[in-house]
Amino acid sequence: MNNSPYKKNIIIIAILFCAVILLGRLFYIQVIDTSYKITANNNVLRYEVQYPARGLVFDRNGELMVGNKTTYDIMVIPREMKAIDTLDLCNLFDISYTQCKSILENVDRKKKRQGYQAVVFLKQVPAEIYALFQEKSFKYPGFYAQVRTLRSYPRNVAGNLLGYVTEVDTAAIRRNPYYKMGDYIGKSGIEGSYEEALRGRKGVSIYERDVHNQIKKSYDDGKYDTTAIAGKDLICTIDIKLQEYGELLMQNKIGSIVAIDPGSGEILALISAPGIDPSLLVGINRNFQQLQMNPLRPLFTRAVMSSYPPGSVFKVANALIGQQEGILTPETRYGCAMGYKVGRGVDCHAHPSPLDLRQSIQMSCNAYYCYVFRNLIDNPKYDNISDAFNQWRKYVQSFGFGSKLDTDIPQELGGTLPTTDIYDRIHGKNKWKSLSIISLAIGQGEIGTTPLHLANFAALIANKGYYYTPHVVRNVVDEPENPKYKEKRYCMIDPVYFEPVIDGMYLAVNGGQGATASWVKIPGIDMCGKTGTVQNTHGENHSVFMSFAPRENPKIAIAVYMENAGWGSTWAAPVASLLTEYYLTGEVKRKDMEDRIVAGNFMSKESRAKKRK
Fold it and tell me: Is residue 504 assigned to a domain?
């Protein structure tokens, strides 16, 4: 009995404590936190999303590559829609009666579910039609226009590099809650890799409606409105005039060009042929399926996705490795009897014999590099062939081959570089020798490189042992440059071994008898290059060339890969030469060479090759 007052007090205190908590929570919900009020009032509020202008894209010289144009989505609020003159609406928006009726029936079905939340009636209406709509909007209750922007292109070039913008799908929405149905997103190229910077930030305006569902005023004097923030502009590394000229040279051809500034890793031009006209993918992408079904695959960015055998340009890699490993000097000479005659043999073309290291590059001797490669793989300083091969492979990887280069191009692939496990599966465990993989001596066989790899390799040689990570965007405006693009990436070759190789590449273009690319030398410019002709079992051989210029203080490194075009010296080399002349001098004086290249057409050859498959 004595404890009763104590228990009573405890119960009273507990009740008072709970009451204070409940009252405090109610005060917070009703007075301080208005989010519940907003939710409760959603049926009388109208939310209008403000879409930001997407960031612009400029080339390295400040020329506009990608701009914006204003367009309008015509929205309709299902519960506000009244009986209208459907035929007049069709004429206004230039759509068929059947299409208009179908859209309106779909809107009508959403009355209960959507209520006063707007749905899209028609997307991407141009400004001139929007102006007519504004004049007649009073005739269509429930309809209003929402401002959007679409991409525009002053020059219809670099479509594969720039990428395109499209409407988000459910997968993108699941990955990132920022996006809602109807939003746009960069899908490929620069638009994709720099989407977060380019897209900006959406805003929203909230309005109150009266009992007649008419807009009355901004909700709470605009306290909860947010302003759209435009996307950030990009400064590209691309020279749009060089890009345009490269695309001209590659018209009616299949292949790609990559040009890099060796001193910075900045990509000056990246061309895939056939490519896409970026204007074809503006808007709701009506042309996407047609491009996707094209057998020549214009959407496929060959410059960074195609894994090709590098061919004879790869001899330069083996020349460098051979010197580093001590099995080769500039004076080392090997003979050639129209090829290497051991085992199944490797054919070669006619040229003077024997040759030293410089001459082997100048004349692109297959036999010379069969000797070099076998000496590398059979090097007695290694315990077994697998160890020697793995060491060779490390050298090749240090040149950037066999993996992605970590660029800012989202489609980039890493090519292929064989392993000992692959050869164990092909030939049997410990049953393969240097002669089994002799194709690697001349860049054939199981190795695959992208044109980007080859251009980067040319830049590495120009720099005598290092490269900068290739990239296509210099910086996002008002943001610092990415520090990883300032870092030098060194290969495993000492700089002293590059000079004989550069001598050979110089002689290949500027030398005398036997020089494989002497006809493409540029008056007044010391270009160093290496030709390649890649065997192709499905048709004509592929034409390859890599180069840099000038020899001292190089400004441009180029790789050209042309499918089914034959000799490297005949087609790929003059393309690189013309681009080099254009970039370094601002003009091309060798008009006969230019006219021949522009007129070249290998589409028909590709068709014949496909028939032979």
Answer: yes
Beta bridge partners of 47: 206
Pairing relation of β-strands 57-58 and 234-236? parallel
Evaluate whether 156 touches 277 at the Cβ level (below 8 Å).
yes
Same domain? For 197 and 266 the reply is no
Least confident of 72-81, 246-255, 457-466, 586-595: 72-81
| Structural domain includes residue 294 | no
Residue for token pair 């209003």: 144
Q: Report the alpha-carbon distance of residue 414 to residue 304 in Å, rounded.
A: 8
Question: Do the beta carbons of residue 456 and residue 438 sit within 8 Å?
Answer: no
Residues 126 and 93 in one domain: yes
441 closest CA partner among 343, 306, 300: 343
Instruction: Work out the pLDDT band at 212, boundaries 50, 70, 90.
Output: low
CA 315 to chain CA centroid, Å, is 28
The two counts, helices (H) then strands (E), for the chain are: 23, 20
Which phi and psi angles does 452 have, rounded to 5°?
A: -60, -40
- 27, exposed or middle or buried, with CB in 10 Å at 0-12, 13-18, 19+? exposed
Cα 249-564-517 angle, rounded to 5 deg? 65
CA dist 320 and 499 (Å) reads: 10
**470 upstream amide cis, omega within 30 of 0:** no
Is the separation of the CB atoms in 583 and 282 below 8 Å? no
**Whether the Cβ atoms of residue 360 and residue 315 lie closer than 8 Å to each other:** yes
Dihedral sign of CA atoms 194, 197, 199, 202 in order:
positive
Distance CA 551, CA 504 (A): 12
Q: What is the pLDDT of residues 389-433, one digit of tens each?
A: 999 999 999 999 999 999 999 889 999 999 999 999 999 888 899
CATH number at residue 118: 3.90.1310.10
Contact 566, 574 (CB under 8 A): no
Q: Closest by alpha carbon to 225, among 243, 255, 203?
A: 203
pTM beyond cutoff 0.90: no
